[in-house]
Every structure is written in C-alpha cells, then in structure tokens.
Amino acid sequence: MLKPNIGTLNALIRITAGFTLLGWGTAALVKHSRRNYPLFSVMMGALKVAEGITRFCPVVYLYEERQTDDTFDEDVYSPVNPS
Q1: What is the dihedral sign for C-alpha 22, 27, 33, 38?
Q2: Which residues of 4-35 are buried (b: 16+ CB within 10 A; e: fewer)?
Q3: CA gap 37, 59 in Å, rounded
Q4: pLDDT score of 81
C-alpha cells in the first residue's frame, strides 16, 4: 500500500487549491463548454483534492525514489574538467 508522503498542512493546502480549481473550472465550463482550459483545470483540481485526501503525491514519490536510487560511483563518473 502507498504510504503518505506529504504532511497535514500540505494536504490541507492541496485540498483548498483543488476545490478552488474545481469551482472555477466548473463555473467556466457552464459558460464556455467548448474550451479545453476549464476542463484541464477541473481535472487538475480533482487530482489535487485526491492527493490531499490520500496524503500521497506521485510526483513527490518519484522524486524521492530518484534521490534514493542515485548512487555516486567515482569510477564510472568522470567530470568534464578534472582539475
């Protein structure tokens, strides 16, 4: 199972921002249903609300995985200017 990787304050900020984007995007879609930007806004808002509720962010997860997977091997790594 996925462990929470964001804090409580961060989750509350994401929920607030997500509901704001959802509200704005929904209102814009009512007026202009043929535009793509409000639809994108609604999708991103829903994503932020879901991240806040579950306290799991896939971008943070990938960043943390990348940080732990990077191993510095001096034999393989050769700098461009070895001075």
Answers
A1: negative
A2: ebbeeeebeebbebbeebbeebeebbeeeeee
A3: 22
A4: 61
